[in-house]
Structure formats: C-alpha cells, structure tokens
Request: fold
Amino acid sequence: MGQVEAAGVAFLAIHEKLGLADLAVAKEHFTWAIGSLASGAVITRNNWEALGFASEEEYKQSRLSHYFARMAQLFSEHRIRMDHEIWALLTSFALIEGSMHELNGSNNVLRCVLPYVCGPGTCLQGLRCLMRSENASASK
Reply:
C-alpha cells in the first residue's frame, strides 16, 4: 500500500472507530481524495488538478489553511464528521503557520523555530546538559 492509500485508509479507519463515519458515502473516493490531499500537503505532486487546485501555481502557493478547508469540504461531501481533536490540531497548525507568514513571510515552521530552539550557544548548551545526564546515569 502506498502513502496516499495508507493516509486515506488511516483517516477513514480513525473516524469509523469513533463512530463518526456511520453515514459515510463513497468511502473509496474519500480515502483516495483525503489521502492524496494529505500526501500532497507534505510531498510535491504533479497531479495538482486531481487535488482540486485550479492551477499549479495555486497548488504551490497554498498554505495549510487551504488544505484544511479542502479536507473539511471532503469530510462534509462524504458525510463524515471530523474528529474534534483532529479539527483542533489542524486549526492550531493553520493559526501558527498563518501567524508566521504574517510576521516574517515564511511558511517554514522549522526555519522559524530553529533560531529560538538552537540559537547561539543553545544547541551546544543542550548537548553539554545531555552529556552530563548520560554520564550521571552511567556512573550510578
């Protein structure tokens, strides 16, 4: 099973276990569409039209909020209620990404976070602390 299929099957299985897909229609189409969209959000795909984008430019410029809106639309069209925890998680990510984009024009979470996580001396300090705790554990 490929990434697209696995992602789609996972989304459907979670919602079936939670009883949120009892009224679901066209489950096979849902698993393909939601899996393609989830995979396309992480890995650049050539089939942007199949993901529902009007152009390749729109696909490449889309942010998480666009993917989230498309996912919500798929859930609605297939009569599956989205789990509230997944909804909250995706909403949180969309808010963080949107805030970062407004503040510094970047959508790259890692690039925005690294200066604060591994600022000057921070990484080295963290490694020293880790080494001390490893040495302390070994000497006991």
User: Anything to note?
Assistant: The chain has a mean pLDDT of 79. The two ends are 47 Å apart (CA to CA).
